[in-house]
Amino acid sequence: MPDDGLIAIKPEIAAKALVTAERRAAMAEQAATDPDGFWRGEMGRIAWMREPTKIKNTDFTGDVSIKWFEDGELNASVSCLDRHIASGRGDQVAIIWEGDDPASDSKTTYAQLHARVCQLANAMRKLGVKKRDRVCIYLPMIVEAAVAMLACARIGAVHSIVFGGFSPDSLASRIQDSECSLLITADEGRRGGRKVPLKVNADEALKSCPSVRNVIVARNTGTAVAMREGRDHEWAALCDAEPTQCEPERMNAEDPLFILYTSGSTGKPKGVLHTTGGYMVWASFTHELVFDYRPGEIYWCTADVGWVTGHTYIVYGPLANGAATLMFEGVPSWPDNGRFWQVVDKHQVNIFYTAPTAIRALMRDGEGPVKKHKRTSLRILGSVGEPINPEAWLWYYRVVGDERCPIVDTWWQTETGGILISPLPGAVAQKPGSATLPLPGVTPALVDGEGKFLEGATEGNLVITDSWPGQMRTVYGDHPRFVQTYFSTFPGLYFTGDGARRDADGYWWITGRVDDVINVAGHRMGTAEVESALVAHPKVAEAAVVGMPHELKGQGIYCYVTLNAGEEPSDALRKELVAWVRKEIGPIATPDAIQWAPGLPKTRSGKIMRRILRKIAANETDSLGDTSTLADPTVVQELVENRVG
Ligand code: WT7
């Protein structure tokens, strides 16, 4: 490897690549100078019921309006199913399902998936679900999750998936915000040999969700669950007798496809809204280019459908491209830490897409568990969710990929719908730790704190200067919040919330969030959400939460807690608070450290100085900066002396 860290494009990949360096440059050039022409050329990758004549109509100023393909009509499920069957690929495998238990797996062909989607879609229509109604999906990683998504799309219902690791309270607040009329769940989920009580959680949540009139329950573990007469329906009983054909709803390109809640720096999670035409074009375009996807290849993204990665790169992108997409119910460490590679060999996976946190955890166990498996089918490796440190990148490259497989480090967000910055395997030389270059049609830039553009090799706030088809359109039910969150910090520009560095080669290095969002094992968490969970505890007066560096998870959750007068700190109370936050938000929000704070560093106007709290959590206490503006500078010394960890 040369000194500048550049890993050259592999000649054998470039020779057969879908997109070469020259082609990439030509695409980027056309996308920049003639976006309408470029995207008119790309829109044919999905099936239209009515071809759009208007292509791009977007404005990042004022009220912000983003429309793509606005007079087009389509149905996303037709692009993912019907047209593959029409072209004779009905018997090809669409979903390879690998259970938590290594002995359980299944294959579903495009024709079978189509039939199951149509049956559920018909059943949902009978329950009265109509176009634009919201349907909440709270399912484990079973085939039914993809069926439910596509069935919603079929009838024009807007799905809102809630990750199975969220608590009843988190589920309830998401259902309430978008007033879902139907919930699709399962008896239980399975993960790493343990059961997740989904129906029990759902029942708890539904106590405060009057909008939900019906619940469909998939049978997964088969355990007995309470079924409320008139509200709860067994999936099989409801669907098995339904016809296997279902007329797809004609949707406008700008009709909503789904809502997905994500955390921001303030307030409750936002319902990120994606629409149909642009999102589907983006999902197909990026899945094919970034993974250099070829018909017949087996593709595996290890994410959960509860996150955007699962939406775009387990379901919509791969299925739009006619791929065989692998859905994995389990975890990398069970029954042992060779599971990923065992599954790769078992299903002959060609393209493998996972998160840095998983790589770091596996790296800790050394090469043994990897080398026990052949992995010769692998061709492309991907990374997503957080910055990948060069050490983990190189381990992934050398040990997992045997220096044979290019790594695509893909930067994107729930809001962006799909990948924005990433190498293309046959077109862009890689650098360990860099997401490299923007995809054609993506225009990143760096600005300083005042919004002034920064040129050349430098670091700053990452913005995108113009729209791309997969961009979110609004925050569900709160367009002003959309404008405020993404377009007000730097007027006229989409602000990502990330910081980035651009090097002398024009390569992009994402440095992490610059707002009060933390990234715990690739899961996005608002510090404000954890704080409000903590202060909801009767013994807590005040709380401040920051991210801290964590070897495996990237960031951990560090909480400063001030107790009510008269309450004594204790180990028991610490455990109680950890359990409390898990119950309020879900296990993914488990605090890593709780420090008792008699006082918090505040300015004279009462604003908590998080900069100082971040430094203490990171154990960088010799660079606390100026503390003279604090109302009471002595609290800092106290916190430094009693830092935990
Ligand atoms: C945030 C978005 C992208 C889908 C999964 C997470 C961070 C994501 C990378 C990457 C560095 C990354 C950013 C971003 N992030 N991918 N390849 N390199 N950072 O989606 O939950 O919406 O989180 O994840 O900080 O803003 P999300």
Strand content: 15-25%
Return the CATH class of the largest domain.
Alpha Beta
Instruction: Give the second-level CATH assignment, the architecture of the largest domain.
Output: 3-Layer(aba) Sandwich
The number of helical runs is 20
Terminal CA distance: 37 Å
Bound molecules: 5'-O-[(S)-butoxy(hydroxy)phosphoryl]adenosine
Q: What's the mean pLDDT score?
A: 96
Strand ordering within the main sheet: 12-11-8-6-7-14-15-24
Number of domains as seen in the coordinates? 2
Give the CA-based shape: globular
Family: Belongs to the ATP-dependent AMP-binding enzyme family.
Catalytic activity: acetate + ATP + CoA = acetyl-CoA + AMP + diphosphate
InterPro entries: Ac_CoA_lig (IPR011904), ACAS_N (IPR032387), AMP-bd_C (IPR025110), AMP-bd_C_sf (IPR045851), AMP-binding_CS (IPR020845), AMP-dep_synth/lig_dom (IPR000873), ANL_N_sf (IPR042099)
GO molecular function: acetate-CoA ligase activity; AMP binding; ATP binding; metal ion binding
Short description:
Residues 86-466 form the AMP-dependent synthetase/ligase domain. It contains 20 helices and 31 strands.
Account of the protein in words:
This protein is an alpha/beta fold and 645 residues long. It has two domains: 11-501, 3-Layer(aba) Sandwich (Rossmann fold), CATH 3.40.50; 521-642, ANL, C-terminal domain (GMP Synthetase, Chain A, domain 3, 2-Layer Sandwich), CATH 3.30.300.30. Helix content is 31%, strand content 23%. The chain contains 20 helices and 31 strands. The structure holds 5'-O-[(S)-butoxy(hydroxy)phosphoryl]adenosine. 5'-O-[(S)-butoxy(hydroxy)phosphoryl]adenosine binds at residues 262, 307-309, 384-387, 409-414, 435, 496-498, 510, 512-513, 519, 524. The site of 5'-O-[(S)-butoxy(hydroxy)phosphoryl]adenosine (WT7) has 23 residues, from helix 11, strand 20, strand 25 and strand 26. Belongs to the ATP-dependent AMP-binding enzyme family. Keywords: Acetylation, ATP-binding, Ligase, Magnesium, Membrane, Metal-binding, Nucleotide-binding, Transmembrane, Transmembrane helix.
